[in-house]
Amino acid sequence: MTQPASNILSPDKWVDNYADYLFNYAIARVNNANVAKDLVQETFFAGLKSAKNFEGKSTERTWLISILKRKIIDYYRKINSKKGQAEVRVNFYDSGDNEGSWIEERVPQSWNNEAEKNIENEELRIQLDKCIDKLPEKYAMVFRMKTIQQFETEDICKELNISPSNLWVIIHRARTQLRSCMEKNWFNK
Fold it and tell me: Is the pLDDT of residue 102 over 60?
């Protein structure tokens, strides 16, 4: 393996050379264009701040990707922390007349008809279980461990021998498939 000849960075060319690649990398992992843009900007800022630490053992792009990976992990840690959950936006629809989101803490609450609410919650739970059962086995296992059983990320990764970024990709894909299943079988019934 040959090492790059120089450890000189060219930050003035980063946006032209790497912005699209970094954005595509980020959007595939967070599935939100605004968040992906912010993560790329944060990556560039972090790269500028730590430019003196660049040793030239990798290409600029590889170095920036490693920074971006850490930014993505930090993003998921933040939204899964108590403080970060207050800022998580809940999206119900991606497009159309119903497009929009709410801050999780401010999602409209249902009326106080307890008997109806309990029946509806039980029916919802049954439908959700059916949708989870339709997921690929690994997706269902990871989703249940993280979301329902509330295992720590590190414990799940250790147990299933996967990386944290892989875990979050699986969670994202599981949620996307669950949303689609629930829209077809619960919200449109």
Answer: no
Query: What's the CA gap between 145 and 158, in Å, rounded?
Result: 12
Within 8 A by CB and 6+ apart from 45, the residues are: none
The C-alpha atoms of residue 38 and residue 76 are separated, in whole angstroms, by 14
How confident is the model at residue 105, as a pLDDT? 47
pTM for the model stands at 0.44
Q: Between these two residues, 30 and 93, which has the higher pLDDT value?
A: 30
Architecture per CATH, 111-187:
Orthogonal Bundle (1.10)
Distance CA 16, CA 36 (A): 17
* Comparison of pLDDT for 163 and 81, the residue scoring more: 163
Where do the CATH 1.10.1740.10 domains begin and end in the chain? 1-109
The stretches of 7-113 forming alpha helices (DSSP H) are 14-30, 33-49, 60-80, 82-85
CATH number of the domain located at residue range(s) 1-109 in this protein: 1.10.1740.10
